[in-house]
Amino acid sequence: MLGKRTVRDLDLRGGERALVRVDFNVPLEDGRVTDDTRIRAALPTIELLLEHDARLILCSHLGRPKDREPETSLKPASDRLRELVDASVEQADAVVGDEVRARVDAFDPGSIVVLENTRWEPGEKRNDPELAKELASYADVYVNDAFGAAHRAHATTAGVAEHLPAVAGLLLEREVTTLTKIVESPERPLCVVLGGAKVSDKVALIDRFLDVADTILIGGAMCFSFFRAQGKQTGDSLVEEEGIELARKALEKAEGSSCRLLLPVDLALGDRFAADAERRELDGTDVPDGSMGLDVGPKTADAYAREVTAAGTVFWNGPMGAFELEPFAAGTRTVAEAVAEAPGTTVIGGGDSAAALTSFGLADRVTHLSTGGGAALDLLEGKPLPGVEALDDV
After folding, report:
1. 133 and 216 both lie in a single domain
2. Domain boundary among 170, 203, 227
């Protein structure tokens, strides 16, 4: 389904320099990595290349730096990688330049050099051809294993592929293959669980799944745009005003579709968005003034859980409520537990859904936990991913 050459197709004889685009955009606190999921996800590709005595030049962005800000250095990620691999790991002080070239010319087979944050270079985001050409000059082959950045046409995700043999890493291959199967050949029934705040962020996904899914379950604050489209009261709940018409159109399409689009039937309310807000359950969905919906109610959570456990394939993107506030975590927790117990294929679309699973200790109980929120949504919506399109065809 990928249609691109992968790292397995490389004829590595030892000593080759491989420029590997990884996704080490990890959370940091006090100079340490607090969640190494993305680093671990890159290990199969890294270890495969090390087994063939390649010399690895890793590059990644981290955060959204406006300049060469020390707090966005990749050094903490390099330090964590050093603890996870049986190889020498060096951290470069820059992305390109004489110091970098000296390092990559001198390091030994079976070793790793990590370049600095690629977004420290202004040419990264605009896919500057000179930056791409210089990066490519350091290596013999290019491997893209950064699925989380594959929807960006940047110098390190697309530009360098014009100058080197360019293949997919094992993570990128798995991501594309798994996600493509959801829309092209899922085990039935296909149940899609969508949450989050904005309908506008998910409208293209809803439209696509109304054509291919059996059931779509709507949760999170985005449900209030649907309720407003139905003429219901939403009180002080977060409502995306521009999402109301989008929700109305989705409801109209659902009426003529074989896919069932389900909305919450009850809610959990609070008087404010705060961890010490009192949880009050509403049997219904008309929210009174002075209250805001912060979670789906127990009836909804149980009904959604039944849909999930009966599915052959589950795709989940977006929490059911403000799970980061303990009084309003119950709905998301119930759905997460159902996903973890579901007998079919379970795929999590990254972002807050992944964070929720991790916080509930369930991340290792799903079939696939995507490392790319935006890239996953673009792929499922049918959009081409520049970082994939740039790779060599099979």
Report:
1. no
2. 170
- Catalytic residue (choose from 75, 208, 279, 374): 374
Given 123, 331, 351, 387, the catalytic residue = 351
Contact (Cβ atoms closer than 8 angstroms) between residue 342 and residue 314: yes
351 annotated active-site: yes
Q: For residue 323, is it within any domain?
A: yes
pLDDT in tens, 355-387: 899 899 999 999 999 998 889 999 999 999 999
CATH assignment at residue 121 = 3.40.50.1260
In a domain, 128, yes or no: yes
Q: How far apart are CA 167 and CA 222, in angstroms?
A: 38
374 included as an active-site residue? yes
Please state, in angstroms and rounded to a whole number, the distance separating the CA atoms of residues 86 and 82. 8
Question: Based on the domain organization, do 266 and 338 belong to the same domain?
Answer: yes
Q: Output phi, psi for 287, to 5 deg.
A: -90, 125
Q: Which of 198, 248, 260, 299 is catalytic?
A: 198
Which of the residues 38, 119, 174, 228 is marked catalytic?
38
Q: Does residue 372 carry a catalytic annotation?
A: no
Catalytic site residue 38? yes
* Domain assignment of residue 289, given as a range: 178-381
Distance CA 312, CA 342 (A): 8
Tell me the average pLDDT across 288-305: 98
- Confidence class for position 351, pLDDT limits 50, 70, 90: confident
**264 preceded by cis ω (within 30°)?**
no
Tell me the per-residue pLDDT of 247-256, one tens digit each, with 9 for 90 and over: 999 999 999 9
pTM for the model = 0.93
Residue 392, in any domain of the structure = no
Q: Are residues 283 and 299 in the same domain?
A: yes
